[in-house]
Each structure stands twice: as structure tokens, then as C-alpha cells.
Amino acid sequence: MGIVFDIKKFSIHDGPGIRTTVFFKGCPLRCWWCHNPESQAPMPELSLHPDRCIHCGACLTACAQGAIHRMGESISTDAARCLRCGECAEVCYAEARQRVGQDMSVTEVLTEIERDRAFYDESAGGVTFSGGEPLMQPDFLLALLRACQAREIHTAVDTCGFAARETLMRIQEYVDLFLYDLKLMDEDKHRKFTGVSNALILSNLQALAEHARAIRLRVAVIPGVNDDDENILAIGRFASTHPGLHQIDLLPYHPSGVAKYARLHKVYALSQTRPPTDERMAEIAQTLRGFGLQVKIGG
Q1: Rounded Cα distance, 189 and 248, in Å
Q2: Which of 12, 18, 160, 168 has the fewest CB atoms found within 10 Å of its own CB?
């Protein structure tokens, strides 16, 4: 069993071909620009959409904890008393309350994956396990990878690499493609903007480069965070000196996940940040290509 918060069909940005992307709940990083804040906590959460509320009151009756109250024309939730059980979401006809994350078995996830088998075969696609961080649920991930390999379904794992080395090595033989996120080369800046050191991430990447079938580095370009020349040059030097790390996807920052923070009662740290210009993205790509790397803008 594992906790999944979303399964997206017909994905074209998470690896080759048409894919099904399975999003695991839980992440050890807290990146300031994270566009899936609902993925961070390892347990299910409650996402609120007040604009959808029709004030029917069904949630008040369903909440055994008494965490939901009617206040004038609105309905409020006491976060301290809420157990995130999802009972209110079950009875919310307008979907103003949604439980983010559900327990799923390997069989249940595989059933969803195999429904699109014809599209994988026609497009050389497959399944991508993402998050959050899928390595936070290693046994669940390993079981799914083995099952997909047995069914000859192409597998990709999108990871930040912040996990025990033995966990990474245990799954690598069942992974056809790693999508490895590389954020900042400076350790102090990495700790500031993600909450953790990058030492384990870089050492794991070096080890993986010697064993994995294929790796594509993914660099989300965040203006004012990691788009400076110093960081780009450091990425180029690192990738060019390790076998198997010659493919890089540059992903321009976008604020598409900002609204999710309010629904989860979280604060978005980069509210004033704007996407990088096409010109800056082209400059970064050209710099990295100067190291002999294959660079693509976009997923």
C-alpha cells in the first residue's frame, strides 16, 4: 500500500511518449517554488475551495470532531481540531472540500496504468512515478516498478535524489529512465531555498550515473534563485564531467501552483517572481551546450 495524491493520464511532459504519471505523497524538500504543495506532507490533507461552497451545511453534520463552524454567511474550519479524515469531503456536493491523498494498493495503481496500455505502445510511452518524492515510499515504488517491468511497461522515476543510497540502488535496475532534479550547486543556497543540503543529492547522482540505464537532468529555472551565471556554469561543469549526465531539460518557472497554497493554508514565498524570458532561457541553454551537453527547453 502507498499514498497517492493524483494520477494524470495522457501526460507528455514526464518522459518520452504518452504517459501516465502517478504522484506519490510526501517530500523531504520544501522548495520555495514548489507547484505541488499538496505533495509535501506524507499524510492526506484537506484542500479548501471556498468559492465553490454552496453553504449547504452537510460538512458540519459529517465532522465528528466539531472542527467546522458556520460563521455568518461563511463556513470555517478549525485546523487545530481537523483530523484530515476526509469525511466532510465525502459529503461535499460542490467539491469545495477535497481530501488530498488516498491509500492505494499496487493492484489498484496498476489497474489505472494498464488502462492506457494501447497509448504507451503506440507512442513509446509508459508510466512515470513522481511526487512529492517517490523514494519516500520505497517499498511501494519498488513493487510498482517490478510489476511494470514484468508487463514490459516503460518506467520513469522523477526524483530529487534526497534518499538513502541503498534505496536508490535497490530500484535502479527496474527504472528505464531517471528524471533527476538538479536545483542549486551551492550548498548554502540549496539549503536556504529547499530546506536541505545538496551533498547527498549530488553524491547519489554521481553513483547513479555509473549504473542507471538513462538519466535526464531537470533544471527548473527560477529567476532570482538559480538562474545566475555562477549556478548555470557550475551545473554545466558537473554534468559534463560525469558519464550519463549529458541530457538536460530546462523547465522555465511558472506560478501555476500559487492558488494551491491558500487552499492548504500555506504561504507562497515567491509571490513576486515572474517567469524567465525566452531570451534568458535561450542564453542558459546556449551556455550549457557549450559544455557539450544536449539541452532541451521544456519537459
Answers
A1: 21
A2: 12
